[in-house]
Amino acid sequence: LSRRLTSAMSALTGSNIIDEKLLDAVLKEICSALLESDVNVKLVGNLRKSVKQKVNLKDLPAGVNKKRIVQKTVVDELIKLVDPKVEAYKPVKGKTNVIMFVGLQGSGKTTSCTKLALFYQKQGFKSCLVCADTFRAGAFDQLKQNATKARIPFYGSYTETDPVRISKEGVDKFKKEKFEIIIVDTSGRHRQEKELFAEMVQIQQAVKPHQTIMVLDASIGQAAESQSKAFKESSNFGAIIITKMDGHAKGGGAISAVAVTQTPIVFIGTGEHMHELERFSAQPFISKLLGMGDIQGLMEHVQSLNLDKNKGMIKNLEQGTFTVRDLRDQMGNILKLGPLGKVASMLPGMGQMFESMGGDDTSGRVKRLISIMDSMTEKELDSDGRVFNADPSRMTRVARGSGTSVREVEEVLSQHRMMLGMAKKMGGKNGMMAKMNAVG
Ligand code: GDP
Ligand code: MG
């Protein structure tokens, strides 16, 4: 998806004259990419109509940046789709806040409820967990393990089979102990079975949650619509958590879930680990969907590493430049940061780059590319790469020095050129980043 959207958006950025025909072509491309990404057919149709309606090219006075207006309109409309304009429940300090999780089996409830308890605990809430999943063997053990690791008090039973009774007991006990966040994990079945919904409603009546959260696997695709609708009708949840956003999920299902239930997404799960939960924010989500890379997320991430080396790179990115040394530093960081795809997907253009480098088995490749750059001189590293074109013998020297081939050196340089192109497009006063910021 990203690739198609990127090309559609760059058709937009690359061209200076926007006319009706180009607008149609770009819209067509964006729409089919969204469809491919499992965004609901009706929603895509509406998006297309409203963009066309809003961008009335003929009526625009001369001198107005039409390109920018189309771009802004598309982004605005997409953001609207994930923003139902409804506030989710906000837990109150010094009070008991009961939160109940619902969702299909495997969607990520147990994992996410521990993540959320930990999230609130870090914010100073006294948090705990109640396991009301008596359906799945080992459910209590799983919650117990997670909770113990995160040092979060929990309640559950190996012998009690009535989830309603367990949840009531657990919530009552923790209420007495003045816990502020009590999260109730429920069981999910494979399909939307009647018993699941009946049980869910009974637990709801027993614990009277302040907030019910539906957990939805990002990879669910077109099924997101019917599924969210069924859960909304039975449990009337007030918030959504989308999990597994770190994977290859296309994210389009999330848009359908919001649209059909008019319920906000509050968090996204970005990995299996306890801290991999992020507050949902429409702008980066849409940027990512559009393949523009989450520059802001990247910068925060890089800054959080607190490495001196990165300061130069961030400054360069902001200014719309990118040196060979920046590429080298970035690859070094990627090795340090672990899960490649995750970091890579945050960098504009990097998702494609890593795909082209062979997907998962990238760390060996990255090391090889780094070793190539390690054989470059300081001057070469600090350049925009053009010194190599001026004097191709440099490539031969670097290839020999690093024990690689000229073809591989060329490959590094072409990766660098791609990044530089991205940086130019994204950074600077008139860059896409500045425009995106102006939008939001
Ligand atoms: P439940 O049946 O709804 O309670 O789902 P679980 O919490 O047991 O999760 C099912 C699987 O999804 C487990 O293997 C989790 O580790 C995994 N999982 C949950 N959330 C995420 C996420 O955000 N990213 C990834 N990669 N895996 C996740
Ligand atoms: Mg579970």
UniProtKB/TrEMBL annotation:
Residues 264-277 form the SRP54-type proteins GTP-binding domain. GO terms for cellular component: cytosol; endoplasmic reticulum; signal recognition particle, endoplasmic reticulum targeting. Belongs to the GTP-binding SRP family. SRP54 subfamily. Its main location: cytoplasm. It is found in: Cytoplasm; Endoplasmic reticulum. It catalyses: GTP + H2O = GDP + phosphate + H(+). It comes from the Eukaryota. Keywords: Cytoplasm, Endoplasmic reticulum, GTP-binding, Hydrolase, Nucleotide-binding, Ribonucleoprotein, RNA-binding, Signal recognition particle. Fungal signal recognition particle consists of a 7S RNA molecule (scR1) and at least six protein subunits: srp72, srp68, srp54, sec65, srp21 and srp14. The keyword NADP does not apply. Signal-recognition-particle (SRP) assembly has a crucial role in targeting secretory proteins to the rough endoplasmic reticulum (ER) membrane. SRP is required for the cotranslational protein translocation for ER import and preferentially recognizes strongly hydrophobic signal sequences. It is involved in targeting the nascent chain-ribosome (RNC) complex to the ER and is proposed to participate in the arrest of nascent chain elongation during membrane targeting. SRP54 binds to the signal sequence of presecretory protein when they emerge from the ribosomes. It comes from Neolecta irregularis (strain DAH-3). This is Signal recognition particle 54 kDa protein. GO terms for biological process: SRP-dependent cotranslational protein targeting to membrane, translocation.
